[in-house]
Structure formats: C-alpha cells, structure tokens
Amino acid sequence: MPEDFANEYSMHTHTCGELRRENIGQTVTLTGWVARRRDHGGLIFVDLRDRTGITQVVFDPDTAKDCFELGERMRPEWSIEITGFVRERPEDTANPDLPTGEIDVVVNECTILNESATPPFPLDDDIDTDELTRMKWRYLDMRRTPVAEALRLRDTVTWAIRNALHERLFIEVETPILGKSTPEGARDFIVPSRTNPGHFYALPQSPQLFKQLTQIGGIERYYQVARCFRDEDLRADRQPEFTQVDIEMSYVTEDDVMTMMEDVLAEVFKAVGINDVSFPLDRVQYAEAMARYGTDRPDRRFGMELVDISDIVKDCGFKVFSGALANGGVVKAINAKGAGDWPRAQIDKLGDLALEWGAKGMAWIQFRSEGKVNSPITKFFTEEEIEAIKTALDVEPGDLVMFGADSTAVVNEVLGNMRLHMAHAMGLVEPGTHDLCWVVNFPMFRYDEDEKRYAAEHHPFTRVRDEDLDRIESDPLSCGSYSYDIVMDGFEMGGGTIRIHTPELQRRILRQIGMDDAQIDEQFGFLITALGFGAPPHGGIALGLDRLVMLIGGYASIRDVIAFPKTSSGADPMTGAPGEVSKRQLKEANISINL
C-alpha cells in the first residue's frame, strides 16, 4: 500500500497499523472495528482494527468522561471513530508481537458509527471455525488478517503481472462474456437469450478464440485478466468461475512465448519476495515427465521417481508382472526411502489407495533397517533379480519399494499418485520451497475411449509440429504439437500453444477430432473465415491466477485466495446461489423446467 495515499480520501488521519514511537505526542484520528474490549475498572482498553492492523486505544474518564461511557457500551465489531493523543505504553505493558505495540492512543473524542450484531464466530486470526460457516459469513471472515493478507497478495501478484506486460507493450483487451457454445473439453454454463427464443449464450471457458481474433486484428501483443467459467466437478484447485491471465502474441515461436513468460514471472516473484526460483526454467519433455513422474505436472521438490524394471522382471515367476508385460504393459516401481519400517497395517492402507487410483492391487517389498526383507512376493524372484531391483532403485536398509504392473497409463496414474501421497505422508517437501519447470512437446491427439474418437490433448487450435503434418490422418497419435505447460510445485500453473494460422490446417485438425465440414462451419466458421485473411503465426499462454496466488502463498485451496468462493458443489452459502427464478422470468426466457 503506497503510504503517501494511505490516509487520503478518508475520515482518519492514520491507519490502525501505522502508528509508532515517532508518533508519540501527536493527535490522531482513527477509524475501524472494535476487535477486543477490556474493562480494567478505571480504564477501558479497546483493540481497534482496520485493514492494516490493530492499535490499542484507551478510554479514560479523567480525559473524556462521555467517551468513557461510550467505551463501556462498546461490543465486538462495532464501527467507531476516535480522536486522541499518542503516548508511549508503560514498558511492562508493551506488546512486542504487535507493530504498534509500543504506543496506545488516549481517546478524547469518540463517535459510534454503527453498532454490530454478535458475530456468528470470533473474528480472530487463529480460529477453528469450519469453512462452510466462514463462507456463509464471508464478509465478516474477510476482516480477519489471514483472509485480508491473501487478498492483498492476490492484488500484488495481479499488479505485478499487469505492470510487467504493460512494460513489454502488451495491450489489455476485454473479450465477450456472452458468447457461443463451442466444444472445449468441459461443460459450458449456458444463458438463455430472451430476444432470441430457443437460442443460448455460453459463458467463456476461456477467451481462446477471441484472443486469436485479436492477433488477426493486428493487436500483436494482447493480454487480459479474464474471468472464465467451466461447469465441471470441483476440487481444491478448481472453481466454477475463476480468473486466468490470458496472453497472445503474433510472429512468435514457442521459445519467444516461454522466455516472455519467464521474464514476467521473475518480476512477480520479486514483488512477493520469492528468491529461490532461478530462470531460465528447465524444459522437460512430456514423454520424460510421464516416464519419470507418472504425470505431466511433476512435483520435482523430492525424488522417488518412477523406475521401469520391466527388463529385470520379464522372466520372473510372479504372474502379475509377467502377465502385464505379456499384454503389452509395463512394470515400474518407486522407492519410498525411510518407509521400510512402517507397520504392515499402514502398508495395507497404501494398497487400498492404489485400488482407488485404478490399480488391481499393489505389490511391495520392505527392506527393513535391521536388514530383513519382508514381502509376500519375494518368493517369486531369484536373488539376482532382487539385487537388480535394489540397484535400479538405489535401495538401502529402511526403504519401501512399491510396484505397479498394468498398462503404461494405469501404472503412471497409480505410482504418480502414490509418489505424491508418500511425499506428503513422510514430510519430504519443505514448506515455502518452490520448483518450476516447463513441460513441452505434448502429443497433438489422444484417443477418447468413452466417445471412441480422437480428441485434442490441449485444444484443437494447437499447431501440429511441422515434421508431423503428413501423419495427421494416417497416424494421429504419433503427432506432436507446439505446446508447453508451466508447472509449479506439482500443479499446472499455466499452459499454452502455438496456434494454427491457416484455414486448411485448422479444418484438417477439426475433422480429425470427429467434426464434419457442416459442423465446422456451424461452430467455427467465423474463425476459419478469419484465418483466411492473412492471419499471422501466433501463440500464447494462459496462467491460472487463482492457482498462482495459492501456490505463492502456500494455501491449501484456491478458495482461500478468492474473495467470494463457492463450495465443492458450486454453491454460495452466503447469497444462496444457485437459486430458483420466478415463473415470469422463465416465461420471458421461453424456458420450461421438467424435473
């Protein structure tokens, strides 16, 4: 907060967090809420709180009897204005834990601006109130320091991003909220059009198509702090409405976009005091990330990487392993160093987790500290095979090796999740540490087993790598793409691609994901037409702003850094949204409800 303006345009002369020893003797006016009130007989002490902190104010009947009488009436969260003189606290009453703890303000004028009902929960920093209650009363929860600090952090990050992009000649352009429904991987929120009966708008899942149109329009360097909407199942890092920093550039390569993003993030981290991230970032190939970590968003702050031991166990007597390999699968393992002495019951619970993640079971070997090897599967292996496993996984006494045997996709999913679970259970990640990297060269297509068709791995506006253009129709799963995700602490913090900029290639990709020309023209005709007007090569990236702030601040959920978040079911317990609408509103929108 720029101090020069902290007290401009306000009823107060100072904020509750700024008074220090150098203010002793000054007459000041403060405004805020009564955080605590303590009646010490002849004196009343009130902790007065505003957005910047707390100042202790003193009501003394010998100084101002009428103010003392008001102080006797005050209760928590009353909004008041006081004027008084700053004095030094007696040494034995100073509070070293409070920035203003060396002074207090003796009141000689006081106005009660508004009384308050009894809050539904105490507005202390270290409360243990359940999240649903705090969300219902979010406007009160926001008065607490942890929530206020999260919102200030979000503001600092957003300002740093905007400033960095502005300095690099980007132009902020707003794109429509009411648009057309297009297939982008998640369900749309749809909005009926009263003036066009039977037709619907869709809220944007991202400004993807519009930001491409800005490049065709010659903006060249576009950005937007954009609101996005996706009707999908929620989790800690998802909300139905969220914010992303959307960026697009013309006449660029993927190296240009990634270098620009690193320069912007360097300024963001500097603004928030993060010094343990160095640039340029590592670039990890997609295939390597999947092989070593089981995921395309690897958390590299600890080891425990996946090791392929298929060649070691291909001739073993354990049919689970040999059967998986015979079916074209793979056998991998991870080494949880230090977990080899865990009790059997605790290890069995890990097997239950593996089942939840898609495994048929989980094999394991304990290499206990005293040298004993414990496992129901060791009888199926020769001594040479056991030694080879130990060498491949750098096994020492006290280690626990866990195996996955199935298709490559299932093994990566199970062991990738198990790796993260074990790191959390064993406390392997030091709080406050960060790791960032790029994951690059994603496949262009994946096969959707549910819909029995090819789908775009990122999105269908991604450019296929030049060397793979001839294989789009003949061997789509072998096609790579100009794509890149930025990963922070095991979360996809942002992602982008170089886009298709010719109408012919765009049609080929849309056909390959199952659209015929009529569907293409219906849903993307405006884009195809626009690409035909000399569209420049262009590409960009979108950062999840909520997720970035969550990771920087070390919060457990993006709900912690959103002013008015929703629950895991997408509900707002404060306003009651989503709610019913009147029959009149339904009639005006030409909608009937059949439940």
Tell me about this structure.
- The chain is of the alpha+beta class.
- It folds into 3 domains: 3-114, Beta Barrel (OB fold (Dihydrolipoamide Acetyltransferase, E2P)), CATH 2.40.50.140; 148-284 and 437-561, 2-Layer Sandwich (BirA Bifunctional Protein, domain 2); 302-428, Gyrase A, domain 2, CATH 3.30.1360.
- Helices cover 29% and strands 23% of the residues.
- It contains 16 helices and 22 strands.
- The chain has helices at residues 65-73, 131-136, 138-141, 145-167, 208-216, 254-272, 286-293, 310-313, 319-326, 344-356, 383-392, 408-425, 503-512, 517-531, 545-553, 583-588; strands at residues 27-39, 44-50, 53-59, 79-88, 103-114, 171-172, 190-192, 200-202, 221-229, 241-250, 282-285, 307-308, 330-337, 363-367, 373-374, 399-406, 436-440, 445-448, 453-456, 483-488, 491-498, 538-544.
- The protein has an 8-stranded mixed beta sheet with strand order 6-9-10-22-21-20-17-11, with helices on both faces.
- α4 crosses α15.
